[in-house]
């Protein structure tokens, strides 16, 4: 984004917010999907994915000086933090150990639900910012009417 | 009026200071003040609006073919194209208005 006439103010900034929240939602979906994943004996449990966000700035030449202008948010990295696996007694399961215990990934579905709601609300907030920008652009066009 | 004497950033003064300059280009199409003709500016705006519309069209196609995953990119592109079109219409309305006022002078 960023090209075009730049008619809607701050739309390119809010778009990076939408992208970031979409990525967060993907990470949460991956965590929820793996809430019931079992761990093979001797292997490491699947970690909880977390998206780390950072502010983004762009350098623009203005009046012969380089200025830092806001450019939204960027995904710094996606970290995978291991959780303590839960031990469930399930003899006969292919991943059970000698005593009949199966290790499940320690992902907490409740925590993921909160994260999911958080990402959804943040996405909505970015959409509201875009909608406000569009209203501003349309109001500016009404000057001539 | 001296151009160098005008403070930087004062646009009104700058535009005034250009006035007394002698027209350098002779021809029917050229603007005597050296700037681009209004026709060209309008054509440029129409061109840009057209580019935005085509861009939006392409992203809709990308969504249909599975090339793009983000729905919000497509809707934002469509919105931008819509606002640009509104701006172009506003300019066109002003132009037609001015023409009609000129025509009324004959009555």
Condensed summary:
Chain A is an alpha+beta fold and 145 residues long. Chain A has helices spanning 11-33, 109-141, and strands at residues 38-39, 48-62, 65-81, 86-89, 101-104. Chain A contains two helices and five strands; from the N terminus they run H-E-E-E-E-E-H.
Please explain how this structure is put together.
The complex is a heterodimer of chains A (145) and B (107). Chain A is an alpha+beta fold and 145 residues long. Chain A has a domain at 11-37 and 46-82 and 108-140. In chain A, 39% of the residues lie in helices and 29% in strands. Chain A has 2 helices and 5 strands, in the order H-E-E-E-E-E-H. Chain A has helices spanning 11-33, 109-141; strands spanning 38-39, 48-62, 65-81, 86-89, 101-104. In chain A, the strands form 2 sheets. Chain A has a 3-stranded antiparallel beta sheet with strand order 1-5-4, with no helix packed on it. A two-stranded antiparallel ribbon of chain A has the order 2-3. The longest helix of chain A is centred in the C-terminal third of the chain and has 33 residues, at 109-141. Chain A is elongated and about 80 Å long. Chain A starts with 10 loop residues before the first helix and ends with a helix. Chain B is mostly helical and 107 residues long. Chain B has a domain at 37-105. Chain B is 65% helix and 0% strand. In chain B, 9% of the residues are buried. The A-B interface holds A 1, 4-5, 7-8, 11, 15, 18-19, 22, 127, 130, 134, 137-138, 141, 144 and B 48, 51-52, 55, 70, 72-73, 76, 79-80, 83-84, 86-87, 90, 93-94.
Based on the structure, what is the oligomeric state of the protein chains?
Answer: heterodimer
* CA-based shape of chain A: elongated
Query: Helices and strands of chain B, in N-to-C order?
Result: HHH
Main sheet summary of chain B? none
Whole-angstrom Rg of chain A: 23 Å
Largest interface: A-B, 17 and 17 residues
- The N- to C-terminal Cα distance of chain B equals 40 Å
């Amino acid at each position: 984004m960023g090209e075009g006439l730049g008619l809607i103010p701050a739309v390119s900034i809010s778009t990076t917010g939408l992208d970031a929240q979409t990525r967060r939602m993907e990470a949460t979906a991956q965590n929820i999907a793996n809430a019931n994943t079992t761990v093979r004996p001797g292997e490491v449990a699947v970690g909880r994915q977390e998206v780390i966000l950072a502010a983004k700035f762009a350098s623009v030449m203005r009046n012969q000086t380089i200025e830092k202008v806001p450019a939204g948010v960027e995904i710094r990295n996606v970290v995978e933090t291991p959780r303590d696996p839960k031990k469930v007694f399930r003899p006969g399961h292919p991943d059970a150990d000698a005593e009949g215990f199966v290790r499940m990934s320690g992902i907490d579905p409740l925590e993921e639900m909160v994260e999911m709601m958080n990402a959804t609300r943040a996405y909505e907030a970015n959409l509201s910012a875009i909608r406000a920008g569009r209203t501003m652009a349309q109001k500016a066009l009404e000057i001539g009417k | 009026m001296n151009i160098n004497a005008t403070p930087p950033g004062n646009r009104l003064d700058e535009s005034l200071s250009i006035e007394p300059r002698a027209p350098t280009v002779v021809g029917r199409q050229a603007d005597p003040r050296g700037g681009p003709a209004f026709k060209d500016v309008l054509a440029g705006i129409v061109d840009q609006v057209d580019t935005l519309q085509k861009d939006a069209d392409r992203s809709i196609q990308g969504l249909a073919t599975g090339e793009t995953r983000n729905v919000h990119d497509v809707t934002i592109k469509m919105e931008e194209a819509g606002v640009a079109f509104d701006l172009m219409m506003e300019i066109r309305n002003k132009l037609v208005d001015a023409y009609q006022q000129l025509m009324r002078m004959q009555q």
